[in-house]
Amino acid sequence: MGRVGRALVLHELLERTRDRWVLVISALFALLATGVSLYGRSAEVEVAKLTGPSLVTLTALLVPLVAMVLSHDAIVGERERNTLGLLLSLPVSRIEVVFAKYIGRALALVASVTVGLGIAMVVSDAAGARTLSQLLGPTLLLGLAFLSLGMLISTCSRRQVTAASIVVVTWFLLVFFYDLGLLGLLVITDGAISQETISTLVIANPAGLFRLQMMQAFAGPEVLRDLGMTATLPGPAALALLWIAWLVVPSIGSGILLTREKVT
Q1: Most buried residue, 20, 97, 197, 247, by most Cβ within 10 Å?
Q2: CB–CB of 140/49 below 8 Å?
Q3: pLDDT tens digit string along 188-200?
Q4: Domain positions in the chain
Q5: Quick check: 25 and 143 in contact, CB under 8 A?
Q6: Which helix (H) or strand (E) holds 228?
Q7: Residues 72, 167 contacting (CB under 8 angstroms)
Q8: Do residues 111 and 28 lie in contact, with contact meaning Cβ atoms separated by under 8 Å?
Q9: What percent of the chain has pLDDT over 70?
Q10: Which letter does DSSP use for residue 91 in this model?
Q11: pLDDT score for 245
Q12: DSSP state, 170?
């Protein structure tokens, strides 16, 4: 990445650190420490099994929304302010512009999540800190995946309000209605669809992949069998490829679309 690209990364990082959404997620993750600490010190069962699933649910709801809101105006905001032409006239490639904006906003998201969970670890007891440390890596992957998806939405949109609307709809579809749709599919087909197919569809969604990965990490594989499901995670290599695809492919699509942009 050239000098202009690096400057753009720094600019995006500084701008996003003043974004209220970044401050909100840091504060919310820090507040999770109270619940983790109280439950961990008073519970008679393993802390991870008690608080882990609750933290997974909250994270799966909050982080994707914040990540997509954080990235929804990356390109369309420049387009609406009529500064996209000026930006693309600089000695920097269009794909580099996309990745510079992505990296800058990703650094802000990583910092906010890390600070929030870090504060939670400090004030929690040892068991609570271990639970939160298990949550950190997958939470960052989840956030970066939805950040990349938000970049794609921003590039496709012509108005910022349109991008914001699409972001909210996409969040509802992937976080709320996706699993309900799979359940409805099972009901409609009277269970004719195999559990392997349902498992594949679950892990094809980054929110579903995150939940499945963390629920098994905290509560063990038997937690799904108790619910009548046999969804299984792929091997480490396939799991890594899935996360890489969600992190990279939408951003590459944004870069390709921006290269076709006609700016006067």
Answers
A1: 97
A2: no
A3: 877 677 777 777 8
A4: 3-171+248-259
A5: no
A6: none
A7: yes
A8: no
A9: 84
A10: S
A11: 93
A12: H
